[in-house]
Amino acid sequence: MQATTAPPRQLLTDADVRRIIRDEPAVEFSAGLELLDMGLQVLDDVTDDFTGGSVARNAYATLHGTATLGLTRVVDWGRAIVRPYIKMSDGTTTPRFNLGAYFTSTPERVIGESPETYAVAGYDILHGLATTVGEAYAVDAGVGYLQAVATILATQGYSRVVMDQDAAGVVLPSARVWPIDEQTKWLTIVNDLLGAVGYQGIWSDWDGWLRVHRYQSPSARASEWTYDVDPVTSMLDTLRRLRRDYFDAPNRWVAMRTNHIDGPAPVEGNGIFTYVNQFAGDTSVEARGRIISKVVPVEAADQASLIAAAQRTIDADTRTSATMSLASFSNPLHWHFDRLTLNDPSVGPVADVLSTTWTLPLDGSLMTHGWTLL
User: Fold this and answer.
1) Are 322 and 242 in contact (CB under 8 A)?
2) DSSP state of 285
3) How would you classify the pairing of strands 210-212 and 161-163?
4) How far is the C-alpha of 281 from the C-alpha of 17, rounded, in Å?
5) Does the pTM of the predicted model rise above 0.70?
6) Cis amide bond preceding 115, omega within 30
7) Radius of gyration of the chain (CA)
8) What domains does the chain contain, in order, with CATH numbers?
9) pLDDT per position as a tens digit, 135-194
10) What SS3 state is found at 350?
11) Which residues share a beta bridge with 32?
12) Please, what's the b/e burial string for 126-146 (b: 16 or more CB within 10 A of its CB; e: otherwise)?
């Protein structure tokens, strides 16, 4: 999630921001839109020509963010980058929340209206990496994984990047080549390189900066927000859907390193990592009465990166067994794979959940969520 006191809210307290989002009985919403350049510098505020819309996020999608926006002016369609934002006011305090940067599509034009309205689809600023490479691409042995990623980002025009340097010293043990293939995008190569050193896939934040971080299991992260059903503090709609489906969920994973072709054959502890869920939850060996195995081929820089990559798959497979869909009062702090707490006796004991999808209308109407129970 966005930090409650991150810019442009750094002059407000955490308590003030939480109060306006969660506790105020009457909050006024207003939406705005900025036109940006590739360096995220503001070229113009086009709020006067903005009719509203919504933003959405799917953490498992190739491009995580999308937007549906209305404009009554022409911009440089196909090249323009926009950043929507909303403000929430209690009459005294008015925090602003940026909601990501998006490339704009060539829009649908509504003829006959005055002024004419353009229905614009916005695509995550990562879309600049979603183009086909169009030729073979190689990274030589001895080149740092993060260095290779930084080179691609700079070449594709990205200058606003936050990169965790934990793996800065890890280099490719052998050359890596991506052949000419219509399916090979710059984003594919970037995420392949990051996955090899135990990093999660690249994502863009609420301001439009690209983020590169080491993968951390959701169960190891602190909760960022609590949703409950207390009449005083509840933000949740009364209708909530819970689905459990774990029939094919594995409880044994065998991850194999596939890219150290000049090294010794992989063995357990050196090129192979095996994990068995013996007792935890409905999908465990104990609960199911049998072992359900899954083989996970991984390109990894070393054994530690292999384990980290395997853990991403294990976490994802474990989470798929219980999902929720629901709606809530607007919470514009939400962003990428948020770790949350749910206190709802109708669902069960206090639970940790992971936010994987959400849609936020910019007019303050209910936002929708997709959660998985951890």
Assistant:
1) yes
2) H
3) parallel
4) 36
5) yes
6) yes
7) 22
8) 14-124 (2.40.10), 131-212 (3.55.50), 252-319 (no CATH)
9) 999 999 999 999 999 999 999 999 999 999 999 999 999 999 999 998 899 999 999 999
10) coil
11) 85
12) bbbbeeebeeebebeeebbbb
